[in-house]
Amino acid sequence: MHDFASEIRNALLLILQGDAELWAIVLLSLRVSLMAVLISAVIGMPLGAALAVSRFPGRRGVIVLVNALMGLPPVVVGLLVYLMLSRSGPLGVLQLLYTPTAMIIAQVVLVTPIVAALTRQVIEMLAEEYSEQLRSLGVSRLASVPTLLWDARLALVTALLAGFGRAIAEVGAVIIVGGNINHVTRVMTTTIALETSRGNLALALALGAILIGIAVAVNALVSAVSLRAEHEGLTHA
């Protein structure tokens, strides 16, 4: 019990004293995950919105596929990205394996289906609500996408936060393509796994506490954005 209390105290000291190694790991984690979410938003939001308003043969199958991709096993994604970026892979010439860029690519693959699927759900409901108004203005389905995305911006923030939560907590894919190299690709989740196995519980606990804090903050933001979106919806009604 004394050792456990001592480890917790040491973990708190690492956080409060601004340990350089600790915060370098945290900042790299945030940089990788935020960049992955940004790229996923650029890809996933237009894709989800287009899927929501378009009508074509096989559309239902595409929707099922996108929804299924939300549950992609991270280690499988890591393996596929590894094969693409390895020396014998089609993108091996770029020499991206075991770099933060490789980790971003893996997270983009994981997060984009989440953003696309949630965007489709939001835009589909909004398109039904505005269908008569848009039709009276002579706006085509695809031309309405930018307007619908802007009108649903608050709800879509929730989709981005959900994607960020998936990215920041990821360990399987990033450790495969990043290699968990000290001061290069070591992020919070991979460091927690490594330091726990080494018995360095203070650093693992400190990073775990920060990771939990980020998760709580993300969920608080989701709740706040959802409440604001509901309030604006009632106001417009």
Automatic annotation (TrEMBL):
Recorded topology in the membrane: Multi-pass membrane protein
Q: Which UniProt keywords apply?
A: Membrane, Transmembrane, Transmembrane helix, Transport
The protein's matches in CDD domains, at most eight in alphabetical order, are given as:
TM_PBP2
Q: Name one GO biological process term.
A: transmembrane transport
Naming one, the record's GO cellular component terms include:
plasma membrane
Q: Where are the transmembrane segments?
A: 22-50, 62-85, 97-118, 154-181, 201-222
Q: Which Gene3D superfamilies match?
A: MetI-like (1.10.3720.10)
Which cellular compartments is it found in? Cell membrane
Does this entry carry the keyword Transport? yes
The chain positions of domain ABC transmembrane type-1 read 26-222
Q: What SUPFAM superfamilies does UniProt report for this protein, alphabetically?
A: MetI-like (SSF161098)
Question: Looking at the record's lineage, which domain of life comes first?
Answer: Bacteria
Entry-linked Pfam families: BPD_transp_1
Which family does the record claim for this protein? Belongs to the binding-protein-dependent transport system permease family.
PANTHER family on file: PERMEASE COMPONENT OF TUNGSTATE ABC TRANSPORTER (PTHR43632:SF1)
Q: What is this protein called?
A: ABC transporter permease
